[in-house]
Inverse folding.
């Protein structure tokens, strides 16, 4: 009897230890931080896609969140992966132990990760060597595993216009909930479904990244051409000035930018705290190489140079 009780006791302890291991974020992080684990996972997943007759996607995700900073370079240099999806930007009860999940921008669009930061940390555009992989925000979780229900529908309803609505699945999960999601989107929204790499390419043509002018007045941006990303280029800006105006009781900002270049001046658009302003098109003038924008809403702003 004593031996039987001892066996049951040890079995219970073993099951309890296993439960704690499975539910411990640290246990999974240890695997995710392993470079070899990353490589094996991607190779095995790619093999599974090939067996199923699917082409291996140019944009992939590997687990709960972005690769830690010590593996981002491996994704780019050794694995040749174009991008990874960002951490699911919404909290769920089943994943409440994972912090930092929020939609970074009012408009959900791709952005570069910072190699010196944690996941969900955008690249500031200042140091090229710090530019990490391109992140594609994910606004839904693994609907193939958790299902597509009222929570996901409500989340979609709260997103602003032109947001990227994406989901991720594991090749071994049931794809039926994915079909439910697609049918719901087609029925209730004016949507267009694109491959992840196609979306990134299309977005990069319209919105070169990143969108800022640094303290030395150098404008930085990136763009995609011939299915590959060109290095960051620079244009010198001699002066940037701005002042507040009041017209019929409405405050606005007038911004003047003079570019030090003899080349054709690109179209300039504004971004406020990383969010492209979607109001009426504000007036712009080009006088002797000086771009002047009027009726710009007040707020923290950054400049986006767009071809």
């Amino acid at each position: 009897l004593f031996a039987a009780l001892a066996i049951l006791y040890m079995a219970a302890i073993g099951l309890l230890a296993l439960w704690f291991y499975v539910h411990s974020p640290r246990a999974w992080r240890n695997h995710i931080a392993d470079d070899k684990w990353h490589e094996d996972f991607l190779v095995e997943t790619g093999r599974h896609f090939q067996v199923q007759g699917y082409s291996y996607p140019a944009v992939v995700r590997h687990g709960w969140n972005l690769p830690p900073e010590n593996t981002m370079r491996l994704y780019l240099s050794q694995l040749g992966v174009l991008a990874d999806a960002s951490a699911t930007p919404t909290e769920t009860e089943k994943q409440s132990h994972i912090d930092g999940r929020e939609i970074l921008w009012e408009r959900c669009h791709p952005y570069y990760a910072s190699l010196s930061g944690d996941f969900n940390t955008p690249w500031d555009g200042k140091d090229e060597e710090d530019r990490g992989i391109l992140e594609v925000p994910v606004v839904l979780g693994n609907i193939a595993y958790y299902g597509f229900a009222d929570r996901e529908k409500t989340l979609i309803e709260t997103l602003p216009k032109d947001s990227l609505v994406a989901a991720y699945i594991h090749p071994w999960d049931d794809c039926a909930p994915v079909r439910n999601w697609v049918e719901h989107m087609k029925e209730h929204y004016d949507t267009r479904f694109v491959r992840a790499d196609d979306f990134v390419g299309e977005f990069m043509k319209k919105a070169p990244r990143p969108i800022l002018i640094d303290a030395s007045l150098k404008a930085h941006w990136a763009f995609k051409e011939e299915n590959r990303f060109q290095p960051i280029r620079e244009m010198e800006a001699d002066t940037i000035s701005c002042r507040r105006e009041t017209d019929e009781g409405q405050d606005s900002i007038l911004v003047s930018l003079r570019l030090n270049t003899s080349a054709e001046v690109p179209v300039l658009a504004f971004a406020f705290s990383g969010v492209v302003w979607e109001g009426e098109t504000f007036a712009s003038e080009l006088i002797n190489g000086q771009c002047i924008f009027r009726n710009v809403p007040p707020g923290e702003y950054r400049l986006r140079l767009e071809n």
In short: DSSP finds eight helices and 15 strands in the chain. Residues 210-306 form one domain.
